[in-house]
Every structure is written in structure tokens, then in C-alpha cells.
Amino acid sequence: MTVLPMSNQTAITGLGWTEFTRSSGTSVSVLVARACLMAIEDAGLGVDDIDGIVSYFHKKNDTQHPRELAEMLGLPACNFHHFHDGGGSWNAAAVLSAAMMVHSGLCKHVLVYNGRNRYSEGRKKRARDAFDTSGAEQFEAPYGSHHAAAGFGQYATAHMAKYGTTTIDFAHLAVTQRKHASLNQKAMMRNPISVEDHQNSRWIIYPYRLLDCCQENDGAVAFVVSAADRAKDLRHNPVYIMGGCCGIEGRDGDAAKTARRVFEGAGVSSSDVDIAGIYDNFTFMAMKHLSDFGLAPENEVGAWIREGNNTLDGSLPVNTHGGLLSEAHFMGLNHVIEVAQQLREGGVVDDLCKGEHTYDRSICRQVRDPEIGFVCGNLSASAVVLRKG
Amino acid sequence: MIEYAKPLPTPDMDTKPYWEGCKAHEMRAQRCTNCGAFRWPPGPLCPHCRSWDSEWVRLEGTGEVASFVIVHYSAVPVFAAEMPYVVATIQLDGTNGAVKLTSNVIDCPPDAVKVGMKVSPVFEDVTPEFTLPKFRPIASV
Known about the structure:
The complex is a heterodimer of chains A (389) and B (141).
Chain A: E1 10-17, H1 28-43, E2 52-56, H2 66-73, E3 80-84, H3 91-103, E4 109-117, H4 126-129, H5 148-163, H6 167-181, H7 195-200, E5 203-206, E6 208-209, E7 218-227, H8 228-231, E8 239-246, H9 255-266, E9 275-278, H10 283-292, H11 301-306, H12 323-326, H13 333-342, E10 372-376, E11 382-388
Parallel strand pairs in A: 2-3, 2-4, 9-10
Antiparallel strand pairs in A: 1-7, 1-8, 4-7, 5-6, 8-11, 10-11
Chain B: H1 16-23, E1 27-32, E2 38-39, E3 54-59, E4 63-71, H2 77-80, E5 85-92, E6 100-105, E7 118-125, E8 131-137
Antiparallel strand pairs in B: 1-2, 1-3, 4-5, 4-7, 5-6, 7-8
């Protein structure tokens, strides 16, 4: 495979978000509208410039339909919209979908969003959802396997048995990401934690304790994808979309093949990545995804984490916003926001620095001079490579 | 008799023979009659040779714990009463690794479950219509 024709032809141009809370006190529509309007404003565009919409949900729609958003915002025209059920596996796919819509010429500026009242409304639906036993659920739900940790814990115990990975390794990942979140004004969880705090937190589903699990929250995030030639004239430096893939592991179940397509299509290798947003619904899943893409060694990913390679000044800063574990859970779309912020001139705007970034890790979470960013979704099913423009 | 309060499977045309096997206390798996490959979950055509022809064959039902978790938290009250319990991925013997079932490992303290543990099936007739295959360790623990 050669470099994709769409490589570097589109860019992320505007970023938006709401407050992340456990009780938004408002509707999903309001949350989505706020994040989208901020992203459009941040790009230096007007609402009338938007002519494409992408969003996604997990299994059952709990966000706003693109059709409703187009009506609410009063878009003059929406030439294409895409609304997918891929959940957390689809965050990078959402970026790529917008890029394809722009690169095709169908759309000029595409809005991508995820917003929900997952904590205040979604949690009540859980017990009811456990009784939906059609399709694949007929082989899971009758056995009490309805919590995400029951399914995603399986990957962890298999890896622990094969490579000797331990929950202490998980603890180090949780501690590092919490440290990152402590430097993020919009993060849900900002109080530092220790390895002991992790080990003393209650079991949810072995091998995951409370501090191995992601947040649940209300709020919204959004961004704009534009054509590269238009992006140059907008408010911020473009964050170019170099390439990616939304793969299905297929019969042979080989995530490495997806990884190869991602990096070849972008024209870079995994060692070129300077900053990564790695899907982290549970601590170990981030470790799995890192090794799936060759960003950390599969057999020694635990040691790689313990050595601090994933810290702000490590060999590959990972989830510098705190991730799903400590910032918030927007099915990984917040990872795109963070990596794009890190790749902008001026860097992140919501750490504790006043003015210039100091790289003092008691106030600053800006990574030093990142050029190439990477974001992947759950089960390594989609990934995208980004570049500072 | 106390009414069974947990979720029951919703079989479809592809999966019905599997659940019928369970009701007969037999572990059955779908095998391609053209290339001989087992497949899971059940489906209309072979993902290896794309043949439409398949048969349901009876297995020993024994297998190995490929991975497991221990549930200590549940938002579903009927399961919460039984915590902690084990949800495991069981790789069935004689299927060339193709058939991996999610089920419970029972008759065993949760802390004693290990990856690689050999297990045999226990067919639980949970209602007159449905039987759920669960697994217990072959060796005493």
C-alpha cells in the first residue's frame, strides 16, 4: 500500500467542548449545540459554512441525530451526513469519515461531534439493557456478562497469564493519566492518585478495580474538518489528517494488519509518533492498543508503562488530557481534541499555565514540540495519524 | 417454583440448533461440510471456504479457560445477588480453537479459576424452554 491520495489534503480546523459533569442539567441537544458552535467559532468560520455532519453512538443512539442538528443550527445545506453505531471503536473513523467527505468534494467544512448525558440519564438504562438478548447478546447476557469490564477484562487476564503483566502495571498507567488530568482544567478527575490508592480501590470486575475504569459523564465535544487549501486561511494552524484506517480484524484477528495499513497510508512509521491518544476504557485496554500499533512492546508493555514512557516527558506521551480514565468519556472523540490541541501553535489552552507554556509539570501539560500525533479507538478498530501544519 | 428472573437467550435461525443441543444436554457446534472448519458464532456460510453447507456435530463439551473475569459489581440486581461470580471465555476442545463460548465457571471458588484450566460442561435447565451450558473444573480445586 502506498500513501493515501487523501493524505494531508484535509485538516482539523476548529475545536469545541462543554463543561464535563455528572449532571449537565440540560438536554443533549443543548450540549451538542454548545460544543459545535464553539468549534465553528474556534475555526474562524460561521455556521453557514458547515455543509457536512458526522457523529456516532454505541449500539443505541444516545446523542443527537445529525438531521436534528442540521435543523437546530439552521444549516443552509448539508451535503452529506454519516451517523454510525461503532461506539468507542469509531473515534478515529469519525475523523476519517469527515476527511473523506471533504476530500471527495461533497463538503467544504464538516462538523464532527459526540455529546450525551451518559451519567445523569444513561446509567438508569443499564439494568434494562441487560435483558436485550438478541444477536450476539444471546451468548453473553444470560451469563451475567453485561458490564463492559466483563468483556474487556478477558483481554487483560489472557495477557497477564501469557506475559506476567500485573495490576501494578495497570496502576502505573492510571496514576500517570491522573497526573495528566490534574493539569487539565476540563478533566473530571483532577486529584492525584498513587499506586497504593489504585490497589486499595474496590474491585469492579477482576482484574479491574474502580481506578482501572473510565469515567461516565455528561457533556459534548466537537471539531471541524476542512480542506487543506481552505484550512490555511483559517484562525489556527491546520492539523493535517495524514491517513488512517477503520478496519475489521476479520477471520484471522490480526490487529497488526490494521496498524500496517494506518502507518503506510499516512507515510510514516510508528516510531515517528510524538504524541498519542489511545483508547482507554480500561487501563489494560490502553496497554493492548499501544502494543497492537507497535507503539509499545507487546510482551513488555507493563514495564514500558512502569518506566514512564507514557508521561509528558517520556518517549511517547499518551493521553495527555487524562483520557477516558480521568478526563471524561466521549467515546474517544476527546482524544482527538487533545492531540489536535497539542499540535497547534501555542498548544493546549486549558492547562494551568498562564500565557506561555513553561513545561513545569506542576502547571503545564503541553508536550515539547510534537509534530506527529496518533489516535486510536477501541479494539484498535480505527486509527488516524495527524500532523502539525 | 420461583420464576427465573435472569435474561434468557433470544435464539435466531442461525443459532437455534445450538440452543436445541443445550436443551438435549449436548454440546453441539457448527462445522462446514465442505472444508471441515468449525465456526463461531453460528452463521449461514463458512468464513473460510464460503460454502453454504454445514452440519451440527456433537462435541465432548470439554474445554479450557482462555480468559476470565470475576464480577464484583453489577447494575443488574438479579446478578448482584450472586457476586462474586466468574465469567470466562471457554475454548472448546476438538474445534481447532474456533469455538469460544462465554459462560460461567461454577462449583469452584472464583479465586481458584486460572487461565488454561480444563473444564467440562454442566447443563443447567433454567426454564422448561432453555438450558444454559456452564462449566466446572475437571480436576478438583
